[in-house]
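Sanity check

After download, print the first record. It should look like this:
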Amino acid sequence: MRSLLIVLTVLEIVIFVGALAVYLILIAGSLRRISTSLGKVTFGVRAIETQCASVGPSVLKVNEQLTVIAGALETVSSKAESITATATNSEQQS
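Expected C-alpha cells:
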C-alpha cells in the first residue's frame, strides 16, 4: 500500500511538471511572437520619427508667417472700417 502511494505521488509530480513544461513552452512561443511584433512597431515608429523630423522647423516658419499676416490683418481691418465709415457718412449726407 505504501509503495502504491509513493508511485501515485511520483506520477502526480511528473504530470504536474509536464503540465508546467507545456504551459511554459506555450508562453515562450507567445513571448517570441510579441517580441517580433514589438520589433516591427519599433521600426515603424522610427520611420515615422524620421519622416516627421522636418515638421517641427516647418511649423515654426509657418507660425512666424502667420504672426506677420495677423499683424497685417489688423491694419487691413482698420482701413476697411474707415473706408466703410467714410462711405456710410457720404451716403447719409447725400
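If your output differs, re-run the checksum step. Summary of this record's structure: The first helix runs from residue 2 to 51.
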